[in-house]
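Why predict the complex rather than its parts? Because the way molecules touch one another can change local conformation, and only a joint prediction can capture that. The input here totals 1360 residues.
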Amino acid sequence: MSASDILNITLMQGFAGLSLFSVLLLMGLGLAVIFGQMGVINMAHGEFMTIGAYTIYMFSQLADNYWHGFAPVYFPLAICAAFALAFAAGWVAEWALIRHLYRRPLDTLLATWGLSLGMQQVFRSVFGPKEVSPTLPDWLMGSWSPKPGLDIPINGLFVMSLAVLMTGGVLLALYRSRWGLRVRATVANRQMANAAGIDTRKTDRLTFAIGCGMAGVAGAAFTAIGSTGPTSGSLYIVDSFLVVTFGGAASLLGTVASAFGIAQMQSISEFFMTGSSARVVTLLTIVIVLMLRPQGLFASKVRRA
Amino acid sequence: MSHDDQNESGMPSALRRKLLMGLAAAPALAVSGIARAQQFPTAKVNTTHLAVTDTEVTVGQLHSATGTMAISETGSIQAERLAIEQINAAGGILGRKIKVIQEDGASDWPTFAEKSKKLLENDHVAAVFGCWTSASRKAVLPIFERDNGLLYYPTFYEGLEQSHNVFYTGQEATQQILWGLNWANQTKKAKSFFLIGSDYIWPRTSNKIARKHIEQHLSGCKVVGEEYYPLGTTNFNSLINKIKIAKPDCIYAIIVGGSNVAFYKQLKAAGITADKQFLLTISVTEDEVLGIGGENFAGFYSAMKYFESLENDNNKKFVAAFKAKYGPKSVIGDVTQAAYLGPWLWKAAVEKAGSFDVDKVVAASPGIELKSAPEGYVKIHANHHLWSRTRIGQAQADGQFKVVAESPDLIEPNPFPKGYQ
Amino acid sequence: MSNTDFVLAVEELSVSFDGFKAIDSLNLYVDRGELRVVIGPNGAGKTTLLDLICGKTRATQGSIKFRNEEMTQLPEFRRVRKGIGRKFQTPSIYENLSVFQNLEVSFPRGRGVFGALAFRRTDDVMDRVRSVAGEIGLAGQFDLEAGLLSHGQKQWLEIGMLLMQEPELLMLDEPIAGMSVREREITAELLKRICQNRSMIVIEHDMAFVEQIAHKVTVMHQGKILAEGAMEQVQNDPRVIDVYLGH
Amino acid sequence: MDPLNPSAGVPASPDRAAARAGLRPAPWRWLTTDGYGSLAVLAALILVVFPLALDVFRLNLMGKYLTYAFVAVGLVMAWGYGGVLSLGQGVFFGLGGYCMAMFLKLEASDPVSTKIQSTPGIPDFMDWNQLTALPFWWKPFHSLPFALAAVVVVPCALAFVVGFAMFKRRVGGVYFAIITQAVALILSVLIIGQQGYTGGVNGITDLRTLLGWDIRGDGAKLILYFVNAVLLLVAILCCRQIQRSKLGTLLLAMRDKEDRVRFSGYDVAMFKVFAFCVAAVLAAIGGAMFTLQVGFMSPSFVGIVPSIEMVIYAAVGGRMSLVGAVYGAVLVNLGKTWFSESFPNLWLFLMAALFIGVVMAFPNGLAGLYDSHVKPWLARRGARSAS
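Output of the joint prediction:
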């Protein structure tokens, strides 16, 4: 095997790590906002992602059946729609369910699990039990080959840029916007925030909905690399939680860091051992680290009240 | 027979129209049915307390309607329904209409066990058409053997099994694998193979057989890689890079479920497309292509005994009936067809035995032929598997397969292949 | 580190939260049988000091010697077993348990898992509960659910729970906060009585009350000790006046 | 907080009931959700009524549900009393079940009945995976005493390690839940991946005899059912003793004011570890009994989904009530079976409604309803009869 081959493989493997990183990050972000900022465990996170995926499917159906010129361009639109739909669903869920359960995190966990079961059945009734495949625009499914033997998946690049965009967006929103201010205030001290005239209930709802919306975007993006079916969400939920907890629920940077760490661990070990054992090694490492640093990598150290 | 029955029944539309016009035909059928029922008194055809009356025989259907496996098992449910309705429309079995009790295995092996117990010990069904994964079959097998039930199992599987109480209407591993590999070697000049699979018994056993065959029976061929990923894995970039290093002539893939979709999408995105790379799989039927997307799988090859696009009259009838019942968009994969065979094989055996008693049906089964099988012609082997042909289909962008090769004659089922274990 | 016969010897103690020094190289010595009152403006670090002594917060540096034994590395429950009792600012009792159970649970026997399993309600337990209940004036309310007690009674109950453990050193954080005048007097009497055979550290703002009970007063400011000594002497200390009135 | 309306926190009322009960028995005491009366009712139900009312098939099904009841009872101890919610009870159920299954499998794969294998005398799935000898760690499972000991010890040890590491570092609540989940995931991936040693996805199937006694026959099923039922009642009694002990009071106290307990000289972490271990052992016993009655063990119990479903049993029954937990486990599974038989496509909705409803409307489950409605009525009756 020639030197250039080795270089190519190294590059592509590095890219593999990066794209897994961005996948995990996309999964985690929405949850990081909900779980990290509000301390709510949303077990239905995966299903909100599925909403996004099915949104893409519906758009692609439109494109196929009614408006063929639409096909190459519908994807970005569909992603916005995915955010909107998931956001709406999240809004409703918060109003109907979550808001009654703050201060009872473990119960929220059970309730949202129930929610996820219900949503799965809804998907099944609406879209049928079989998997569907949105016809994706060709520009998304190809690969970019700067030199022979080196192929960079475009969908990987796409997911990556989306991840960067969303992370940036969230950071900006959290630290530069009124909403972010309200959220952080509410997180820091609910009573105070209330006293300061912040409508914390509304903030909660908005936060939750935004988190779900981001899940929707992630799900939409994953149609480019994964499957779309009633139970697709269940493929993601655990990883999402591990990313968030591993990073330290409180901090977004933690989420980024842990997504990166896990991704590298996974893809490197995958390269040197078989997939199954790689999976186990990664999970074990995560659990052990969590046992040593229960609050995650980036726990902020404050006086225990 | 009532009006709706006919509409329900998936008979070719021409035939149905005829029946609809002259309802006379229906009573005629029914009458002859009753006549035959008297010809086979219940006391004679059912000496083992099965759920058989003078006018009805009850069978069970046990698949996953919910859970992750529903994706795959729905096709089988539909095909078995179709077959049973057609049988009923044609007068039933020994003059008795088939009544179906459907149970949901919910993609959960223990539930399969529970439901099979219920069907056998509670409902005393004469036969069960069901299961899809090996795990669910393994879970119910002891129950069928204890209660001496009768199971028709539709999925191609790893073999290494043969039960008095089970008929395997799909292919066992060697039937599906060996001829396909020979073809890959002779026609496609493949010398180096990269074996990949989801991490459970069927892919592992199948790859084991494949490896043995490649290394011992195909001259100058070698396996350059063998990899397994947990069920539900959605990221295959590392694997794809390993494949790029190994540069195999042939990727031999046995990945299932959601992973399947992820794998082929990422394969395409990594620049490994049919025009550059030869890939042969035994785990992708028309059903899976639905999820993967025809454009992402186009050009790759599948080794199956059945493809929806098969050119023969049986299949034309079958496909027409299926689509008439389940809509023009519905697709038919290998397992769906195999599931469709179940009720017909059972009917043939019962009529040959002149009894519903399991032991008699089992005894009568070996040698039974089905000339009307969509896949062509099948025959039950003494080892409860089917003689069948193996075909190679090349996937088209529209999600259909173009049959490019077909084994010259029926391949004998060999669930315990010597030298391959 | 000095070898002392003090009950409590705190030396060069510091703790910082993300850079902010809540306690800054502080020294404090408490005698046997002494009732020490710690005063100081809010944020002076009084509560943090108690937290450090009982182990709720870990010291960044310095030493805490209790009966000449280093405490800084011990987990909370060990320090308690050594004889350090601590009452929190807000009454912290088991609202859902009866007064009796609140006291019984605090009885220093069967503290291990299996000890607790084997624990039986023997006479000595009953006697102790009765006597303590009498001490804190709740003898009549054994079966009452603690959550239903008045604020003052809750405070007393918590003190009682500490007495059950017969601590060598008893630390009270604002024991009379939110009490009526009458209740304050009773509490003062109670404290005087129970400090007969033990040392106590009390954080308090109410000067009248402090005057009633204090043997010695320590004034804290910005994590340091500003002044220490008898009440009137401290009251006339210009720095203290400055701290209290200056801003 | 208003002293007249203490802690609006979820399981307040049963606490108080239990707490008061600890001292002054009320006239209707015998029928409270945790009184001996309710236990007697339960015993009568599962020892007399069910066996008389149900045919062997249904009874065997009921036996299966009762094995889940072990898990639910364990969760009452860990979650209801200990305040630690484990989403990994499937792990312990599975470990218990597998320890039992390994013994039975070895007995089932004697050289004679496995003679068609290329290596007779080892479990069939090992043979399929080209194992030519029994792995060393399987060998001890030839002995029943060892297997039985393992059923209890292995899960308990794992629970101790995990619990100790977590609780000593004050990890609780959500983090603990998620970590137990990760453990569940790891174990299922391991079992499925290492199929040569574990049977993989299929699990360990086709178990036949226990020391030569065919466990598949109707008679055996009947006996196993009663063994299971009695074990369950004993387990409940033990847990009741724990609750009645000072340890039980402390657990309640911890859920109210953990720091107070800590500063009364108790090592809070160890108490939580204990509660967690109890839950683990109970789950394991349930798993072992499951293997015996159903005749196989598979990784589909170890995963996350079943583990969470097990929590709902306890939630439905009432997270504070041992007896309630049993009803919870039985009812949820009955509902599941019935619904999936009658409306295959609706039962997911039912489960969803169950999860949400129980959490939102009846946080204390059936026991809560009983306490708030039936008991006061009994109380009035009791009072009237007294006067």
